[in-house]
Amino acid sequence: MADKAYDPSTDGAQMGFEKAMSYGDYLSLDGLLSQQHPKSDAHDELLFIIQHQTSELWLKQALHELSAARACLQSSDIAPMFKMLARVSRIFEQLNSAWDVLRTMTPADYTTFREALGPSSGFQSYQYRMIEFVLGNRNPNMLKPHAHVPEVLAMLEDELTRPSFYDEVVAYLFTQLDGSTEAMPAPQLQTPHSAQQEIQAQWRRVYEDTTTHWRLYELGEKLVDMEDYFRRWRFNHVTTVERVIGFKRGTGGTSGVQYLRRMLEVELFPELWHVRGEL
Fold it and tell me: Mind listing the pLDDT tens digit for each residue in 3-54?
């Protein structure tokens, strides 16, 4: 005879939730799991929706970490900032793994619901745009897709009025090495950050004497690590799109793979990459 079914309540597990908060209550699962609304009867559209919704949740967490990291940097609270940056890297590692699931969708699968997407596209993700703005890749032209949502537009515009996270890193770099930011180039608020020789020279000082400047060296490597994962995410995006739609235009009107390949050339922290060739 089979053993009697195990009852977790005998070990103290709470089993009734009429007057207590349950797992589903805490996570608002009723609302969360009711937010998937396929526009067609295609089997794979649910996968497409869940892939992008979960990506947006991870982007929300990445922004949460970057906001806190910037606050820590501004107050020179470096140790917890390192943990936050490491977490952002792991978030992008998680996002990279998600492409493996989406790549199980073939071109034949995607064509069954592609028309239902209309002009919507991941290109229009305001959280992704905010991450780029926070890190220093600032292209004011990318505000246009968000003009129809005033509160989102205002949030993105506000970010363009303040130094990026990398600008704050550079200010910390100059302060630690020279005691002031007098020789620091002005932040590039309204344009993508381009390599500045003055900044690269400072990073070279760090990398040529890591023992003396260990904390700055560690900071530089945390940024390179984060951008490495970010680049991999972009690359996996390109290969997934090429695998699924080839060289068709994207649903949002971009050139598709060609547009995404252009994004692979973007360097968030160019001086940290370029200085490697000088060592």
Answer: 789 888 888 888 888 889 999 999 999 999 999 999 999 999 999 999 999 9
198 alpha-carbon distance from chain centroid:
28
Domains and CATH numbers, the chain: 44-278 (1.20.58.480)
Mean pLDDT of the chain: 90
Residues sharing a CB contact under 8 Å with residue 259, sequence separation 6 or more, in sequence order? 123, 250
Q: 3-state secondary structure string, the chain?
A: CCCCCCCHHHHCCCCCCCCCCCHHHHHCHHHHCCCCCCCCCCCCHHHHHHHHHHHHHHHHHHHHHHHHHHHHHHCCCHHHHHHHHHHHHHHHHHHHHHHHHHCCCCHHHHHCCHHHHCCCCHHHCHHHHHHHHHHCCCCHHHHHHHCCCHHHHHHHHHHCCCCCHHHHHHHHHHHHHHCCCCCCCCCCCCCCCCCCHHHHHHHHHHHHCCCCCHHHHHHHHHHHHHHHHHHHHHHHHHHHHHHHHCCCCCCCCCCCHHHHHHHCCCCCCHHHHHHHHHC
